[in-house]
Design goal:
By secondary structure, this protein is α+β, with helices and mostly antiparallel strands. Helix content is 37%, strand content 19%. It has 2 domains: 175 residues, no CATH class; 179 residues, no CATH class. The protein has 16 helices and 16 strands. The chain has an 8-stranded mixed beta barrel. It has a 4-stranded antiparallel sheet with strand order 6-9-7-8. Helix 1 packs antiparallel against helix 5, helix 3 packs across helix 7 and helix 4 packs parallel to helix 8. One of its GO terms (biological process) is regulation of cell shape.
Length: 447
């Protein structure tokens, strides 16, 4: 049974200490602190597993979840509140033994040193279990280009040490900083009665998508959201820049996927997808004649191999191409109106998705930007180039050789997701479902 009044009372006690009590008690870092450490040492010896024992031994048995008056801190009480409603994280609160923890917190609040130590150790042990369960919680599918891109389930001691190193443990718990930065605002909204059941279900689905993205507070990575057609560049857990993008249309939806951006290609060809050649270009050439190919700066190739032969469009059976009985390939020459613009950024994936510049800047002014054949068109490729490469994009040179591959100084993860609910300030913004993915998802909503 969830005991929110108890937690609320504990939170008030943790955050506000009456003046007479504050004057009467010394900090646990002083003389009472020796008793707490001694009792913790004994409690750890009796009950704690190897992980918790090693964590506290390394910090000379200093408590993590107590305030200076040797009572449960604000961080501890916020954590209890989160864990009481762990079903919103795909974790069963009963399996965490939450009722027992609340009882221990109540006893610890009375100040008996043995109870204080028992609470401290039990909370650390349960916190590690909770974080690991959240990282392993239910998530919607994402295509990972490498196992290194998947969410990591940390070792219990790593969970505790990372929390202990936070500048503010209370902020760390409140922001659920062991998850992706966008997770906590959605999580808090699940307990807000202002949101309808329909909205809560939508929030729940988007939390499941965010659980598919690892927490990388110190890393650099790119996040692309196809629902809002927007891109963010993250450093140290915070977005440092963002831009509009154009993503796949309904017929060519950009998939939910992850990869490592590994290289920039300057002055690129546009390698036209074969289905576009068959279903679109062949019709144009049949209607306007083979001259259509050169007029729009395309070339016809007999293969995608580096030594592919360039074919004369007049020699190609374009009706056969349209019918699917003849196979040719096409590319658009660099420069001018090339669909790739000045640069594209590649990450290996069998879906053939990449980021690229675009001359069609008018499309980026539209509200709904699900307009491409699947790849991600950038509003400001020059900014992306500088951020990824550490140098400005080279000026366009006349007669520059095509397809100049420039490796990135280091690979940068990219996560492409689909978020129809996003935080904006202290509120949430509910977006349209352009790919109708929310409507198709079958995932049990949290109570």
């Amino acid at each position: 049974m969830m005991r929110f009044p108890v937690i609320a009372a504990l939170l008030a006690a943790a955050l506000v200490v009456p003046l007479p009590q504050a004057a009467a008690q010394a900090s646990w870092r002083g003389e009472p602190g020796k008793h707490v450490r001694a009792e913790l040492r004994e409690e750890i010896g009796e009950r704690a597993g190897k992980t918790v024992r090693g964590f506290y031994t390394a910090r000379d048995n200093a408590p993590m979840w107590l305030n200076k008056y040797a009572r449960p801190s604000g961080a501890a009480t916020l954590l209890l509140y989160r864990m009481q409603t762990a079903q919103f994280d795909g974790v069963d609160p009963d399996k965490l033994g939450i009722d027992k923890l609340v009882d221990l917190a109540e006893r610890a609040q009375r100040g008996e040193i043995k109870d204080v130590a028992r609470f401290e150790v039990a909370l650390s042990d349960t916190f590690a279990e909770y974080v690991r369960a959240m990282r392993d919680g239910p998530r919607l599918p994402m295509i990972y280009g490498s196992p290194a891109l998947e969410p990591v389930i940390p070792a219990p001691r790593s969970v505790l040490e990372t929390a202990a190193q936070a500048p503010s443990l209370e902020s760390y718990v409140d922001g659920m900083e062991w998850m992706h930065p966008l997770y906590a605002p959605l999580r808090k909204a699940m307990q807000d009665p202002a949101y309808s059941e329909t909205q809560r279900r939508q929030i729940w689905m988007n939390m499941a998508r965010l659980r598919a993205i690892p927490a990388m507070p110190m890393g650099r990575y790119v996040l692309v959201d196809t629902a809002s057609a927007h891109l963010w560049m993250y450093e140290g857990g915070e977005p440092v820049d963002d831009m509009r993008v154009v993503v796949g249309n309904d017929a060519g939806q950009t998939p939910i996927m992850a990869g490592f951006l590994s290289q920039a290609v300057e002055n690129p060809y546009w390698l036209v997808p074969d289905d576009i050649v068959q279903n679109e270009f062949a019709d144009y050439i049949l209607e306007y004649g083979p001259g259509w190919v050169a007029d729009r700066r395309y070339e016809v190739l007999d293969s995608w191999e580096p030594d592919a032969e360039v074919l004369d469009p007049k020699t190609v059976d374009w009706q056969g191409v349209r019918d699917g009985t003849v196979s040719v390939h096409m590319r658009q020459l660099p420069g001018g109106s090339n669909f790739m613009g000045r640069v594209k950024f590649e990450f290996p994936n069998p879906q053939g998705i990449y980021l690229h510049d675009t001359p069609a800047k008018d499309l980026l002014k539209k509200t709904d930007r699900q307009l491409s054949h699947g790849c991600v068109r950038l509003e400001d490729a020059a900014t992306m180039y500088r951020w990824l490469m550490g140098t400005p994009i080279p000026a366009a040179a006349k007669n520059a050789p095509p397809e100049q591959v420039v490796p990135l100084p280091e690979p940068v993860p990219i996560y492409i997701t689909y978020l129809t609910v996003q935080p904006k300030g202290d509120n949430l913004v509910f977006l349209d479902d352009p790919y109708a993915r929310d409507a198709r998802v079958r995932i049990a909503a949290a109570d």
